[in-house]
Amino acid sequence: MSLEKLMDELERHIDYAQSSLKELREDVDVELQEADDEIKILSSQIDDLDKDLDEADTKIQELMYQNSLLEIELTEVTGQLIHLKHELDILRKGV
């Protein structure tokens, strides 16, 4: 094989390798862009979920506070009922 043919063959291999490398770079760029887009979407969804979680936590805290107030009121009413029952028992015994 002559040196000239060898050089031609090497140039074809180099051209093929460069073309393949260019295609590979383009594919990688597309994949990276798609991954970046997906990351942005997921990041936005995480932010939305964090906001929802914060709102739910606030609502739970409010409900717990209201529950505590209702428990206090129930305790007061129960105490009043016990007192009224005691007075009623006293009145029944006295009659």
Structure description:
The chain is mainly α and 95 residues long. Helices cover 97% and strands 0% of the residues. The N and C termini lie far apart (133 Å). The model has no long low-confidence stretch (mean pLDDT 95).
A few lines on this structure:
The chain is mainly α.
Write the layout of secondary structure elements.
Blueprint: H1 3-94
Mean pLDDT: 95
Number of strands: 0
Silhouette: rod-shaped
Order of helices and strands: H
Largest sheet report = none
Please indicate the percent range of residues in DSSP E strands (runs of 2 or more). under 5%
Number of helices: 1
Radius of gyration: 40 Å
Computed structural class: mainly alpha
Distance between the amino and carboxyl termini = 133 Å
Q: Which spans have pLDDT < 50 for at least 5 consecutive residues?
A: none
Amount of helix: over 70%
Keywords:
mainly alpha, 95 residues, rod-shaped, 97% helix
